[in-house]
């Protein structure tokens, strides 16, 4: 009787040991996407601007057209007028968010200053990398002071555009 | 040993996630340029003057003007006031 009991205990122990350790498998997958990148293709240029004793603004659209308000007039010979353009590259078909500057940027002729703000872009607020690339165009509004002194005004600190995969 | 593997796996995941985040957000900068030019202005330095003239007689200059217009206008000059009539085609 004792022998039978001992053998039974040993058999149950083996069975318990068998069910106590089980295994399963899982497949791990990872996709390395092409890193998103952005490169400046051209800078922003408001062209020639004239102003009288009343302050005004120059609105430069992402398409590169401009309009004026207040005492600002836009000469027929406007000089070089360009919206800023950036080339965004990455995974084909991916969408990305666009972050434009939230504040203003100061441009100066060395003595006198003007500010640039109210940033706009095309596309907005997200873009799509059709074929893995897209051109991002950025416009803004130039604030011109009353009787702003004549001169060439350039940004001391460049403005930043950030893109991020959605 | 198992705990060490789990720790290593977690660190690897954190490294990959942080790496992906860094790659997923990129920036570029651009410069701004504008040129302010001096606004055009005009100031009257001398007034326009036609001098003295009279209108009570048909002056030669008026007749010459009417003659110059004669190919296009039939000019009828009565005694009192000159009148121009269009030529009938």
Explain what the structure shows:
The complex is a heterodimer of chains A (166) and B (89). With 166 residues, chain A is mainly beta. Chain A has one domain (35-165). Helices cover 11% and strands 50% of the residues of chain A. Chain A is built from 1 helix and 11 strands. Chain A has one helix at residues 2-20; strands at residues 37-42, 44-60, 66-73, 84-89, 95-99, 105-108, 113-122, 126-128, 133-144, 151-155, 159-165. In chain A, a hairpin with a 4-residue loop joins strand 6 (105-108) and strand 7 (113-122). Chain A is rod-shaped. Chain B has a domain at 59-89. Chain B has 2 helices and 4 strands. Chain B has a two-stranded antiparallel sheet. The relative contact order of chain B is 0.07. The interface between A and B is medium-sized, with 49 and 18 residues. Strand 10 of chain A pairs antiparallel with strand 2 (32-37) of chain B.
């Amino acid at each position: 009787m004792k022998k039978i009991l001992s053998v039974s205990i040993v058999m149950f122990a083996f069975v318990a040991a068998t069910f106590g350790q089980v295994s399963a498998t899982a497949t791990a997958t990872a996709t390395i996407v092409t890193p998103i990148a952005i490169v400046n293709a051209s800078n922003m240029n408001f062209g020639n601007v004239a102003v009288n004793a009343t302050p005004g603004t120059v609105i430069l659209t992402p398409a590169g057209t401009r309009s004026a308000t207040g005492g600002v007039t836009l000469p027929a010979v406007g000089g070089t007028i360009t919206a800023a353009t950036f080339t965004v590259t990455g995974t084909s078909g991916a969408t990305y968010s666009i972050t434009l500057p939230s504040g203003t940027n100061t441009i100066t002729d060395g003595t006198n200053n003007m500010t640039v703000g109210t940033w706009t872009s095309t596309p907005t607020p997200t873009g799509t990398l059709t074929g893995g690339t897209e051109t991002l165009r950025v416009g803004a509004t130039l604030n011109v002071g009353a009787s702003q002194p004549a001169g060439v005004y350039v940004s001391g600190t460049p403005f930043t555009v950030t893109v991020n995969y959605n | 040993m198992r705990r060490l593997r789990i720790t290593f796996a977690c660190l690897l995941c954190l490294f990959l996630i942080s790496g992906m985040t860094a790659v997923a957000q990129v920036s570029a900068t651009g410069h701004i340029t504008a040129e302010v030019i001096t606004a055009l202005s005009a100031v009257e330095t001398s007034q326009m003057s036609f001098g003295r003239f009279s209108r009570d007689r048909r002056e030669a200059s008026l007749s010459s003007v009417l003659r110059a217009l004669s190919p296009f206008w039939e000019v009828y000059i009565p005694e009192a006031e000159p009148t121009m009539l269009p030529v009938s085609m």
